Amino acid sequence: MRIIAVEEAFVTQSLVEAWDEILSGSEAEPGFRLMGNSILAKTPINQALHGRLADIGPNRISQMKSDGIDMAVLSITSPGVQVLRDADRACHLAAVANDELAAAVRAHPEHFAGLAAVAPQDPEQAAREIERARHRLGLCGVLINSHTHGHYLDEPQFQPILEAAQTEAMPIYLHPREPGPAMLEAYRDHGLYFATWGFSMESSLHAMRLIMSGTFDRFPRLRIVLGHMGEGLPFWLHRIDNRYALQVRIGGIKPLQRMPSEYFLENFVITTAGFTSAPELRLSLDVLGPNRVMFAADYPYEDAKAGVDFLHSVDLDEATRARIAHLNAETVFGL
Ligand code: MN
User: Fold this and answer.
1) Which of 173, 194, 193 is nearest to 184 (CA)?
2) pLDDT tens, per residue, the chain with 335 residues
3) Which of 75, 247, 286, 299 could form a disulfide with 115 if both were Cys (CB 3.0 to 4.6 A apart)?
4) What is the C-alpha separation between 179 and 186, in angstroms, rounded?
């Protein structure tokens, strides 16, 4: 069975240098500062992780083979270029990363595909980069690491990005990062800002902002991918619909054209990234059906081999297993 993993991280040298520069100054976002003190700190464990992130050549492919992964859909690791204050420089770093990614895909088309980085700091340039990624670079989607300096894609200034993604049929992978500045204070204690909890709260909030703002009434063909088993949202859909209906009845909010869950079931696809646990997969399949769940390993942050072993061994009918392993990714990303 072919296995495609769709949330697989890499990093460029120029991005690491830009991060170092930001973290050594006083302008870093507070959440990014916390990251700088943990996973970006220059410790031996993190240096090993960095070595894996920096490699998108033959060594990465050998690792994939030993993990049992045939193809990796690569993307710049979180928080990407979104922490830069200088929009032009962010756009430039995204373009450099996309060029490097496209070269790796061209060199190993049977093993690599790629999601483009964009800098939402300049929505018009980001929209042009989506077009370039699609037509000139052969990339198959876009990855955005949730908020950009505390701003979310439902805000009107980002319309060019959503428009380009819809027009070019480029799915947007809404990847987690630490909570935005307005959320962060309550997540500072006990390490809660990190992927233990805060990352999912941030990215599920972002997804809910897209749904509740009527974004999919304006962009009905826009497709959003959420990692980490949908960042919890498959569990919440019933409750969301129920209380949304009450809010509409009491005149608290303007009604959408459809129920919130209908947008989730139509415009979203989720991935298993970081989950090797059957109950959450079963719930997701019950709620979303077999066509909207894709395999992701979240290399190098997770144990990719454990993800593959789970996919092979979890109790599923073989048709569903094949959909999760590769068929859905082939459809969603046009691979
Ligand atoms: Mn990830």
Assistant:
1) 193
2) 999 999 999 999 999 999 999 999 998 999 999 998 888 888 999 999 999 999 999 999 999 999 999 999 999 999 999 999 999 999 999 999 999 999 999 999 999 999 999 999 999 999 999 999 999 999 999 999 999 999 999 999 999 999 999 999 999 999 999 999 999 999 999 999 999 999 999 999 999 999 999 999 999 999 999 999 999 999 999 999 999 999 999 999 999 999 999 999 999 999 999 999 999 999 999 999 999 999 999 999 999 999 999 999 999 999 999 999 999 999 999 99
3) 75
4) 10
Domain that holds residue 46: 4-333
Catalytic (active-site) positions: 298
Centre of ligand 1 to C-alpha 7, Å, is 6
CA distance 193 to 37: 12
Which of 50, 132, 125 has its CA nearest to residue 99?
132
Q: Ligand 1 center to residue 196 CA distance, Å? A: 13
Whole-angstrom Cα distance, residue 130 to residue 136?
Answer: 10
| Ligand 1 centroid to residue 19 C-alpha, Å | 18
- The answer to whether 161 and 126 have CB atoms below 8 angstroms apart is yes
- Consecutive H or E run containing 125: helix 123-135
The answer for residues whose C-beta is within 8 angstroms of residue 260's C-beta and 6 or more apart is 208, 211, 212, 237, 240, 241, 244
**Can you say whether residue 292 is alpha, beta or left, with left for phi > 0 and alpha for psi between -120 and 50 degrees?**
alpha
CATH number at residue 287: 3.20.20.140
Q: Domains in the chain: how many in total?
A: 1
Reduce the DSSP state of residue 172 to 3 states and report it: strand
The alpha carbons of the chain give a radius of gyration, in whole angstroms, of 19
Sign of CA dihedral 261, 266, 268, 269: positive
Residue 296: closest CA among 74, 98, 81: 74
